[in-house]
Design a protein that fits this description.
By secondary structure, this protein is mainly alpha-helical. The chain has one domain (19-145). The protein has three helices and no strands. The protein has helices at 4-36, 42-91, 95-145. It is elongated.
């Protein structure tokens, strides 16, 4: 059985780690490149523009794919809940049967909410990956030159 709360915590942990690593690498890369201004580091400076555009484009694509995934998942969950409501309430003999269905529906909604939250966090992780990858690769490469 999946544990949606654990998935959310794992995604939060990954997002936090990638964010910290990106920030640390970016500070190093920006400081290094600023130090090259006016020096013989023009080739490195020329790499920056296309590099940022590529990372931003990859991040945007990941964001769109994530939004589609979240919307599809939410639509599937909604359809399942509505189908379940029609089925259970159509067979309900009394208020107790209806109340039992409502309890199940609330529990499922909480699980579904955690699942959607995890999908959104996973999307944020995927959006950050291209930028993280570029920043950390640059930091390693530039540190090797020093």
């Amino acid at each position: 059985m999946k544990h949606p709360a654990r998935s959310v915590l794992k995604s939060l942990d990954t997002l936090n780690r990638l964010g910290i690593e990106t920030a640390e690498a970016s500070v190093y890369v920006v400081n290094h490149r600023l130090g090259m201004t006016g020096q013989a580091g023009l080739s490195e400076m020329g790499v920056m523009g296309p590099e940022k555009v590529e990372a931003a484009a990859a991040s945007a694509v990941a964001g769109v794919l994530s939004a589609i995934d979240v919307a599809t998942t939410a639509a599937d969950m909604t359809k399942r809940q509505l189908d379940n409501a029609v089925n259970k309430l159509g067979k309900a003999r009394d208020i107790h049967d209806a109340g039992a269905w409502l309890g199940e529906a609330v529990g499922q909604s909480l699980t579904d909410g955690l699942t959607l939250w995890n999908r959104m966090l996973t999307g944020q992780v995927e959006m950050l990956r291209p930028i993280h990858s570029r920043a950390t690769d640059n930091a390693r490469r530039l540190a090797a030159r020093d």
